[in-house]
Amino acid sequence: MDPAALRGAHVLVAGGGRSGTAVARALARQGALVQLADQRPDAVSSELRELGVQYAGDLREMPQGISLVVTSPGWAPTVPLLADALERGIRVVGEVELAWALRDHSVPWLAITGTNGKTTAVGMLTAILRAGGFSAAEVGNVGPPVIDAVTGDDAAYEIFAVELSSFQLHWAPSVAPAAGALLNIAADHLDWHGSLDAYAADKARIWGRGESLAVCNADDAHVMSLAAQYADADRLLPFTLAEPQPGQLGVAGGWLLDRTRFARDGAERIIETAEVRPTGPHNVANALAAAALARTVGLSAEQIAQGLRDYAPGAHRNVLVVTETAPDGRRIGYVNDSKATNAHATAASLSSYDDVVWIAGGLLKGAVAGDFGGLIEQAAPRLRGVVLIGRDRAVLAEAMRRHAPNVPVIDVPVADHRGMDEAVDAARQLALTAPTSGSVTVLMAPAAASMDMFDDYAQRGDVFARAARRVAEGGS
Q1: Which parts are annotated binding residues?
Q2: What is the 3-state secondary structure (H, E, C) of the chain?
Q3: What does the pLDDT look like over 151-171, one tens digit per residue?
Q4: Per the annotation, where are the binding residues for ATP?
Q5: Could you say which residues bind ATP here (predicted)?
Q6: Fold of domain 319-474
Q7: Which CATH class is domain 103-310?
Q8: Which of 7, 165, 260, 291 is the most buried (most CB within 10 A)?
């Protein structure tokens, strides 16, 4: 995309959310003639109107004269308006593609994607970059729109840590970051992408058609298969939770160990795994990916270690909310992992604890009972009970009957916020009576989206945290 060609071009922005508003503003400042399509007339703010942006209405077909469509990332190619544009041969791109076209070419992008862990890994990477002295911005899927960081009045960053979803990557065919990391692949958003293969191919765009240094998870066979197809073999930087081979980052003797070409003397310790926060093997993997990306811009092991120590984990990601001591002396910890919205993320969360009462359920995005078989069978020896909430809880109940029939299951049918209160009450009772003399973790890792009962995963996590504090501090 030639930025000069935007001046005078008739551009339609599809969707007026945070991303669409930022795109419309940037396009208008480039001299484009911008229309914005959205269900809400007030999506065109007074600021946008002053820039000349016009409200196009809630469209299903393309207006005449449009030469480019910039879509919000959540809009699938099957949305009638976008399908009409594609059928007519009109180019459709996303906010990230526009940001790439308008970027300062001297400012590198380090990008991260994956089914799970990308927000944590980007947060770690940003902390590492800042520890290394960079003026770094954390942008993308969570954080400010990339287009704002690239074109804003205060855009004076030296490097971008960019989190990219599969939706964003689908609409960003030209993006080629200096280095990109693919953390993992598991079935997700198949209703949007149409198939696992299509979803995985969009994720693989993080490697910029082979132009980028490719950080990849050597423990994930699907990721490595994609690396063989889409990445340049000479530009691979694999990471593993096992002891690393030459050319890899991994774990040895309780330390993150670098054996890539960036390591001093061929092998260099970075930080002890016990210092990585949040806890859990999946977060050690996130730290390895962030470390690999940081190595590509010249940061030392000491700078990486300091950044990982500086990193403050975000809310709703495997966070211990409160702990209570029961009358018999057992400790009950209440952990909020509301960000675990699919089976893959939830399996990683469950693997972090020994004796668990699991709160799960919500919107399963088309998943069926069989999709949870591996997760439940793996976790069953450590499950002391399960409490199910949300619209699709019957699917999880069936999965429990098939794969862990001896684990107690409590069904909470309440379909609003009160359901979480009841779930935490029930989970506490299961924790109090669990056959263990040690500690028990009440883990809210839903394996599902939240919009049936809550505005988003953050609200779900907040409601859980309030309920957990209530029972832990009041005992009821």
Answers
A1: 114-120
A2: CCHHHHCCCEEEEECCCHHHHHHHHHHHHCCCEEEEECCCHHHCCHHHHHCCCEEEECCCCCCCCCCEEEECCCCCCCCHHHHHHHHCCCEEEEHHHHHHHHCCCCCCEEEEECCCCHHHHHHHHHHHHHHCCCCEEEEECCCCCHHHHHHCCCCCCCEEEEECCHHHHHCCCCCCCCEEEECCCCCCCHHHHCCHHHHHHHHHHHHHHHCCEEEEECCCHHHHHHHHHHCCHHHEEEECCCCCCCCCEEEECCEEEECCCCCHHHCEEEEEHHHCCCCCHHHHHHHHHHHHHHHCCCCCHHHHHHHHHHCCCCCCCCEEEEEEECCCCCEEEEEECCCCCCHHHHHHHHCCCCCEEEEECCECCCCCHHHHHHHHHHHHHHEEEEEECCCCHHHHHHHHHHHCCCCCEEECCCCCCHHHHHHHHHHHHHHHHCCCCCCEEEEECCCCECCCCCCCHHHHHHHHHHHHHHHHHHCC
A3: 876 667 999 999 999 999 999
A4: 114-120
A5: 114-120
A6: Protein-Tyrosine Phosphatase; Chain A (3.90.190)
A7: alpha beta
A8: 291
